[in-house]
Amino acid sequence: MQVQILKSDTQFVSMEVTINNLPTWIFTAVYAIPHEARRQSLWHQMNDFSANNSQPWLLAGDFNETKSMEERRNCSDDLIRRCTHFGNWIESNALIDLGLTGQQFTWSRSLSPETKKCARLDRGLCNQEWRLLFEEAGVHHLLQNQSDHCPILISLYAFVPLKQTFKPFRFQAAWLTHDRFTECLKENWRSDTPLYPHLFQLSEALTKWNREVFGNLYLRKKQLWTRIEGAQHKLAQGYNRFLVNLES
C-alpha cells in the first residue's frame, strides 16, 4: 500500500491510496468540529472536492451529525433541522452510506443513567466509483471502551472469519501481580542448560500456568468484552438502569 497526503485541515485529512494493482482512490478521514457553525467549513470544502473529483472516494470518521432522528436516542427535537441538513448534504454530493454491523450507535454520554444519550455520529460514506471498486466493503461498530465513541472498522472485502494462525509467546505483565508467579518461575528456570531451548520450554510452562492457574487472561478478557458488548446492544434499544450500571 502507498499513501500520499493531498490536503490536511483541522477537520479532515485527505490522502491518495494505492493498493497493489487497483486503481488509485481517495480516502478522507473526518473529524467534524462539535460546534455547528464551524462545521460549515468542512461541508463547503467537501462540496468543492466532490464537484471536481472523478476518482473513487471514501469519507469516514466522526461527522458529529446524524441523517435522521432514528439515529439518535433521548435527544431533543431541535436536532431535526440538523438531521435534514446533513441528509441533504449527503444526497447533494451523491454519496452512499456503507451501512453498519454491530451496535446501532457509535456515541453515548450521560451524567447519570437517566440522562444517557446515544447517536450514530460516526460512519463511512463513498461515491459511486468507490462503491463499484469495493462492492463488498462494509462498516462494523466495535466495542465502546474508555472513549465516548466506539471505533469503526472498515473492511474493503466484507467481514470474513480470520484463519487460526500460530501465535508467538508473549510475556504478560499482569502475571507479576499473582502470588504464585515467582514460585512457577523458580520451578521452571534452569541455569545449567543452553538459553534458547530453555526459553522455549519456559514459555510452554508459563503458557500452561496462565491457562491452569492464572485463569487464561485472553479468555477472561473475551468474556468481559462480550458482556459489555451485550449490555451496550441492549441499551441501544432502550433505557435500563441495571445495564447502565453493569456496563460502567
Lateral strand order in the biggest sheet: 1-2-3-4-10-6
Kindly provide the radius of gyration, computed on alpha-carbon positions and rounded to a whole number of angstroms.
24 Å
How many distinct folded domains?
2
Average pLDDT, rounded to a whole number, is 89
- Which spans have pLDDT < 50 for at least 5 consecutive residues? none
CATH superfamily of the largest domain: Endonuclease/exonuclease/phosphatase
Query: Could you say which structural class the secondary elements and strand pairing correspond to?
Result: alpha+beta
Q: Can you tell me the CATH topology of the largest domain?
A: Deoxyribonuclease I, Chain A
Measure the end-to-end span: 39 Å
Which term fits the overall shape?
globular
Sketch the topology as an H/E string, one letter per element. Answer: EEEHEEHEEEEEHEEHHHH
Q: How many beta strands in the DSSP annotation?
A: 12
Portion in helices: 25-40%
CATH-scheme architecture of the largest domain: 4-Layer Sandwich
What is the overall number of helices? 7
The first-level CATH class of the largest domain is given as: Alpha Beta
Largest sheet: 6 strands, mixed
Beta content comes to 15-25%
Any key phrases for this structure?
248 residues; Deoxyribonuclease I, Chain A; 6-stranded mixed β-sheet; globular
Give a brief outline of the structure.
With about 250 residues, this protein is an alpha+beta fold. The chain has 7 helices and 12 strands. Helix content is about 35%, strand content about 20%.
